[in-house]
Every structure is written in C-alpha cells, then in structure tokens.
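Can't paste images in this forum, so I'm doing it all in text. The chain is below; anyone willing to post the predicted structure tokens underneath?
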Amino acid sequence: MGSAARPCAWTLGVLTALAVVATASAQVPIGQAPVKSELPPPRITAMSSAPPVMAIGWDDVVATSEVNATTQIGSAGPGPLHDKVYRELRQFDPEYPRWQLWGGGSKDPNLGNAEVLPPANGVSHWDFSRIDPGFVEFVNTVQGHQYLVDLEVTPDWMYVPNSAIAESTLGPLARVHTRRQLAVTPEVFGDYYARVVSWWEKGGFTDEYGKWHPSGHHFKIPYWEVLNERNMAGESPAEYTRLYDATVLAIRKIDPDMQFVGLALAHAWEYPQYITYFLNPKNHAPGVPLNAISLHFYAKYGPDDPPAVQVATTFDQAIKFINTIQYVNSIRDLLSPATRIMVDELGTIIGTEAPQVPWPKDRRADVPFHIRLNAAMYGFLYGNMAPLGVESAGQSSFGVGSASGGRVGAYVADPLLTSEALPNARFKVAKLLMTEFPPGSRVVASYTGVGIWRNPFPIYVEPYVTPDGTRKVLIVNERDVPYAAVIPDAKGARIHYVAGDMASAMYKERVAGSDTVTVSGLEVAILTMPSQH
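Text version of the structure:
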C-alpha cells in the first residue's frame, strides 16, 4: 500500500461513498456567505520529532500511471501580455488541454454564444466573431496534442425567461448556476452544437433555413465536452443525460470520429446520483458512446482563517476528492468499464466566489502563499491520481494573475502565470511532474505507517519507476513548516524541487546528504535515486 492511501484508505473510501449515497439530495447553488474552514489548527504530536520511515518494494508494481498534467484556457484578450500567454502555453506543452468559453463576465456575459438572437422570419443570426479568434489561436498553439472543447454558453432564447437570473447575487454566473427550463426540444439544442462543430471542422454549416455560412475552417476536434457543471444549476441527471445524448447524436452526424466527455461534474461527492445514472448505458439513447467523464475539484477555505488551518483544510478536502475518485472508479467498473476518467478543473476557491467580491487590498502580500498551497495540493493530487487510472489532471486555469486577484478575488490562487505572464509555482510544479513522471511510469508498493494517535504523517511520499527504468520518489509536504521522511538508499539522490523563493528558476536542485530527506514548507520534490549496483 502506497503512502498515498492514508491509514485504512480503502475503508475510509468505502465508508465515505456509502455515507454520500445515503445522504445525497438535490443541492442548491453556492451561497455568498463568508466561507470559514471547518478544521481546527492541526494538532502537533510526537510524530513531529520522528520522521516516518519509508518501506519501498521497487519490484512490486501497483499500477501504471496514465495521468497527464494539463490545464484549461479560454481566450486571452488583447493587450501587451497576449502573445506571452500563448508562448507560455506552448512551453507548457500539455496533453488534453481544455478550451472552455462560458461567458466573459458582466462586460460580455454572452461570450461563447454563437447565436444570440433566435432565428425568425427566414433569417438566422449566427456570429463567431468573438469566438473564433481565441479558438483558432488555442488550436494552433496546441497542435500535435489531443485537446478538449467545452462551449457551455447556449443561447438565452432556448430557455424560458427566468427573472431569478437578473436578480441573482451571482451576477453573470447566474446563467450557468441557475435552474433553467428548456424552451426548445433537446434535438434543437443538439443541432446548435452540431452547427458549431461544422463551422470549425467542415468549412461552414447550413443554418435553420437552409443557408450555407462559410467559415474556411477545417480543424479536427478530438474531444467535445458536453456542457459544464450542470449539476450546480440543479439540473437533474436525466435532464443532463437527454441534452448529452441529443448533442452527441447531432455532432456525430458531422464527425463520426469525435469522442465525447460527459458530466464535467462539480462537487462529485455530493452528487452520486449523477455518476450512477449517467454511467448506466440503459439511460442513454442507442448508439450514444460514453467515452469519458470529467470531474472538478476546488479546495475551499476562508480568507481570514489562520494559514495553518487553510493548509490543513486544503489537504483534508483533497483526500476527500481522492476517495470520491475511488468511488467513481467502482461505479464505472460496474456499469461502463470502458469509460475513462478525466479531471479537468483543479484549484482553490478562497472565500465567496461572487464576481463582484475582489481580493482584499490589505491581503495582497498573502497571494504567493495561496499559490504555493495550491501548487502543493496539485502535486499531492497528481500523485494520488496516478494509481487510479485518471488520464488528465487539469489545473484551472492558464491565465495571468495579479497581486490584487482582479475582480474575482476567490480565484486569486488559480492562474498559472504571474502578472507579467511568467510561470508561477503552479505552472512549475505541473511542468516538473509531467517531465519526471510521464504516462507509463509505474507506481510501486510503499508504506510509511499510520502516524501517531490516528494523525497521518503530514508528508506524502510515492515511489515510481519511470518508463526508462529510473527509480524516483515524489515528496509533497502537506504543511507549511519543514518536515522529513526516511527513504532507504536516498543518500546521494538528486532532488529537483519547487518551493518558495524560486525567482525565475523552473525548479531547483540539491543532493540528499543522507537517507533522511527534509523538505521545506509546501515543497514538492522529486528524488532521482542513486544507480543501483
């Protein structure tokens, strides 16, 4: 059992799953009350003076990793940093990057909507002028890679008018986080997306009145993700599945080779009914493929919590998400074994996520800490996903950050780039992981004990054998204080790591002076073990 599992991880995972199933009910959208973390400050015990001793079975392969470090992006607006953003995306070089466009905030809530006005009197109103530039630039940047496209914003005229949207404190987010009643048939809904695909793949499309609209595009889209987090709007599993089926069947008439990603599910541990319903082929129309499903995870904590509580809360929630993936795997194996699992949004939400709430001016100096915490959590999740068959671990999102966090302060720690469009700690950790542990790396058996007084050791250690046979060990410090682990035969190991004070370096390097390896607070480190003789 690897250290990733935590004490009695399988039991915890099963109990968590059973508890979730027993208590699941329809959820309401996230409120705007100030967020407080649930955990008290971590209790310090004797484990702090006794580093765990790692036991590794290098020849005992637990699983072969399929996970790819990746990210998502929408459209980088015009400005002096535009070219730098795409330059860094090209350098990041991810597999399964996700292009998602679902509104541009209060200035342009219809961004991503290709038909703002309904067709009427023999005239349609299609307009890709605000969508094409970002999509074309994205595709040209990620050429040679498999990628996902998610176009969540659908025309308002397809829904019954809902006054709650205009009155919602969510602002423009209300379009996608408010329950809306469809005013057209699922087939009309699916045809909208089929025309979008035809625009990008077939050089144009025929509109509702038989008129051809030329585009000149002839791209080949590998994956289409159908909608985004519809569970957060209160849409039932059956409603979402009908829209998925209609969209898939319509798009397959345009591109029979297209693969599809379903659900894009937020808070998966609260919505087991989506997993069980959607993964059951009996609930789908004949001929509808279930190629893959995607899950989203954001750790949430209060901006006013003490840093130790913020750290402990983040990793506690990350463990819950890993247990959720184990549960989803079990259901998938029973109902639709060929369906793959992707995670295409990972990050943190600090406090309320209403777009009108900015990051506090007096907390600007805290932003680097939140980014380091986010990066360490990503390293922890990446390692835990490796033995679970997850194919992508997508950071949200590939954009430019700032000291103030912009208008949406809750997402201040989620960009992968600094305010100068340079790689930050999140970018560097993901790049290091995808370089050191590519798909095909073998996760081997390991054990670090169960901690003291039921407290797990606050350090994550996972050994791998890379495709070329090199023995490596991933270490993530789950606290913002130095910690150590004893790793047999680690003396002389080369250590590549991302921690604080990185400046422009993509990673730093040191050599282990003994088998006891100490890492700084929230450090992500990879040991390349000395050659075995």
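Confidence is low (pLDDT under 50) at residues 1-33, 43-48. The chain has eleven helices and 19 strands.
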